[in-house]
Amino acid sequence: MIPVTGFAGREVALFGLGTSGISAAQALLAGGASILAWDDTPKAVLDAAQAGIPTRDLREADWSRIAALVLSPGVPLTHPEPHWSVKLAQANGVEVIGDIELFCRERERLAPNAPLIAVTGTNGKSTTTALIAHLLARAGVDVQTGGNIGTAILSLAPPSEGRVHLLEVSSYQIDLAPSLRPTIGILLNVSPDHIERHGSFEHYAEVKARLAEAAETAIVGVDDKTSSGIADRLEAAGYRVVRVSSGTRLRDGVFGEDGGIVEGAGGRYRPVATLLGIGSLRGEHNAQNAAAAIAACFALGLTRRAIVAGLRSFPGLPHRMEEVGRRGKVLFINDSKATNADAAAKALECFDRIYWIAGGRAKTGGIAALGRFFPRVAKAYLIGEAADTFAATLEGHAPTHRAGTLAAALEAAAADAAKDEAAEPVVLLSPAAASFDQFRNFEHRGDTFRELVQARGGVRKTTTEAA
Q1: Which residues pair with 221 in a beta bridge?
Q2: pLDDT tens digit string along 450-464?
Q3: pLDDT computed for residue 75 by the predictor
Q4: CA angle, corner 66, sides to 61 and 70, nearest 5?
Q5: CA distances (Å), 257 to each of 261, 286, 393, 441, in order?
Q6: Distance from first CA to last CA of the chain, Å, rounded?
Q7: Is the CB of residue 255 less than 8 Å from the CB of residue 291?
């Protein structure tokens, strides 16, 4: 834990009692603050109280005594309208911050020069964060990883000289962290997302850009127009910018090319590493993720040799192009995190002969945008509420089977793939839909798929080569 001492002896309101909220409350208490914590969900309030966190309805609090409101990033700050707790804070002149801001203030107090890497982007930030963490750890670096990737930042070891803190940060978290000034700030890409929480795409992009603007070294993906424009603007203003790309040759920067990663410096090029054979880094999108991770590691002083060794052993993340087993020549891939068409496209582009398990609760647009990948689909096995809609979209392009459930879809897909004469037929769970019609969340769906695959006779788990 990182005790937060900046509010010692003062009263702090806290709204949102999920993982990060509980961690923030405990860190503030450990640092000597008084806490008033609340949530709109009664069970969350009860659970917090049972964990020893003082709770009180903030509508009944004396706001003249409150020094700050610590807000969960999942709670609306500005759009579609500020949450009632935010309105109370603003009406009383109380600052509204998040747990990332609390961490930044403690870092400034304890070890202001300790390396801090922050990663954001519409897509790819979890994989990039996990890859950086893996490369640093394999090189013997003391790295603490948290934020949006799943571990609350204040649950980590405190900042100290020689210790690297690595954060995945969402736009919501950036909005609540005005003191976030990373040593290395990574902006992977910007595409329309979370507009309901930011009011417009322009504001969403502006929030994302703050991370790069505040960094000592800004690593910026240039494969989309918005991010490329941000890189150009920062460089023109005198910032230190390292451009990265999935496949564009850069005079200066790090980019993917011919299945590997290349570094450009003044028009001179040096191969860094190959990604061929690394299943966890399949696909063009992962070339940009790897380029960004490698650029960050170079900025911290890692050698090319250490980076290459770490890449070979990267296991990837659960539910993101996760190799969960093989049976004969059939490969089973868990990509349950693909809850929309754009995400599923990243998986479909990686394979030539696909037995595709798709469906769930459909998002706007369904799978119409995936038409260019339908020739790769040997057969689609459709589940959940979207089965009929997806079948209609696929009609005339690929054979379909309305399997209904994930277990039935896997059974049919595995049987058909086993008869395929291709070199590596793939049974791919990449649903292009939300999970909530049949599962608690995409993790539950992916875990179920993995368990079903590994329970099948003759399936061997895939392993990552050790470096």
Answers
A1: 244
A2: 999 999 988 887 644
A3: 94
A4: 95
A5: 6, 12, 34, 36
A6: 32
A7: yes
Question: Taking Cα atoms as reference points, which of 366, 330, 382 lies closest to residue 351?
Answer: 330
**Per-residue model confidence (pLDDT) at position 246:** 96
Tokens standing for residue 328: 């004969």
- CATH 3.40.50.720: which residues of the chain? 11-97
| CA–CA distance, 4 with 343 (Å, rounded to integer) | 38
| Cα 79 from Cα 435, distance rounded (Å) | 26
Architecture in CATH for domain 11-97: 3-Layer(aba) Sandwich (3.40)
The DSSP string of 192-227 is S--HHHHSSHHHHHHHHHHHHHH-SEEEEE-SSHHH
> CA–CA separation, 397 vs 88, rounded Å?
55
Encoded tokens for 452: 């079903």
Reduced to 3 states, what is the DSSP secondary structure of residue 262? Answer: strand
What CATH number has the domain spanning 322-454? Answer: 3.90.190.20
Written as six digits, the tokens of 146 are 């948290």
Ranges under pLDDT 50 in the chain: 463-467
Q: Please give, one letter per residue, the 3-state secondary structure of 267-315.
A: CEEEEEEECCCCHHHCCHHHHHHHHHHHHHHHHCCCCHHHHHHHHHCCC
What backbone torsions phi and psi does residue 404 show, to the nearest 5 degrees?
85, -65
Peptide bond into 80 cis (omega under 30): yes
Side chain identity, residue 314: F
* CB 305, CB 312: distance < 8 Å: no
CATH 3.40.1190.10 domain position(s) in the chain = 103-312
Cα–Cα distance for residue pair 88/96, rounded to 1 Å: 10
Would you state the structure tokens that stand for residue 319, as one six-digit string?
A: 């539910």
DSSP 18-33: SHHHHHHHHHHHHTT-
